[in-house]
Amino acid sequence: KDVEKEREPHVYLSKEEVKEKIQSYNSSVTDKLKMTLNANGIYTGFIKVQMELCRPITVQSSQSQERCAHSNNETAFYLPDGCVNTLHISSTNTVREVIEALLKKFFVADNPAKFALYKRCHKEDQVYTCKLSDREHPLYLRLVAGPRTEMLSFVLREHETGEVMWEAFSIPELQNFLRILDKEENEQLQILKKRYAAYRDKLEEALGGVWKPG
After folding, report:
1. What is the domain extent for residue 142?
2. Is residue 1 part of a domain?
3. Distance between CA 83 and CA 100 in Å, rounded?
4. Which of 9, 76, 80, 134 allows an S-S link to 96, with CB 3.0 to 4.6 Å?
């Protein structure tokens, strides 16, 4: 179970320190996703973000083969569990910009304000998660932690239920969500009806055997 951890203070690195860390980082990379330091001191690299979305997202294309409900040119569907996306970003890119880039890559029409980026760390057999502020820089966090994802990984989630900005949802989005929920509710109801119908048949069969004249 994830444990909330307080946000760690940002430590500013000199250009020489950044250079040394990038060299150390690149020497440890095993997936060829290395960082590059530019002459102006800005560096670029890759981060992987795991998508852990519980609610359906709205996309602008109708090519998805997932469970969906249509509204004009938009489709609402559930993103598959464990979906990981790789982004090439710079050290100047903020958390908010990373979220926007992820949504753009998936053609997601939802308001970026509905989502939050978390960092996940493994320490002493526990998993710590911390929601990142919009102004933090994910590539800096990746550089400081090193390339091993078990030391640090990024996760995109919706805001917690109490934090949801419902005013950010459009009417078509809300209607799509209701249709999906109605469909799932009906599917679960049919499963329950079949289960109890089978149970009733077996019970009646057993009772018939008990009261059958010898």
Report:
1. 15-61+71-162
2. no
3. 17
4. 134
CB within 8 Å of 164: residues ≥ 6 apart: 114, 158
Q: pLDDT tens digit string along 96-142?
A: 999 999 988 878 888 888 899 999 887 777 778 888 988 899 999 99
Report the SS3 class of residue 198: helix
Q: Comparing C-alpha atoms, which of 77, 110, 91 is closest to residue 99? A: 110
Quick one: tokens of 105? Answer: 């890559």
Mean pLDDT, the chain, as a whole number? 80
Q: Are 132 and 153 in contact (CB under 8 A)?
A: no
Whether residue 1 is predicted with pLDDT greater than 90 in this model: the reply is: no
User: Can you give the pTM of this predicted structure?
Assistant: 0.65
Q: Where are the beta strands (DSSP E) in 74-198?
A: 74-77, 83-90, 115-123, 126-131, 153-158
CA 184 to chain centre: 21
Neighbours of 76 (CB within 10 A): 26
SS3 101: helix
Which residues are paired to 128 by β-bridges? 3, 121
In a domain, 85, yes or no: yes
Q: What total number of domains does the chain contain?
A: 2
pLDDT given at position 164: 56
Cα 64 to the center of its chain, rounded Å: 18
Distance CA(214)–CA(197), nearest Å, equals: 28
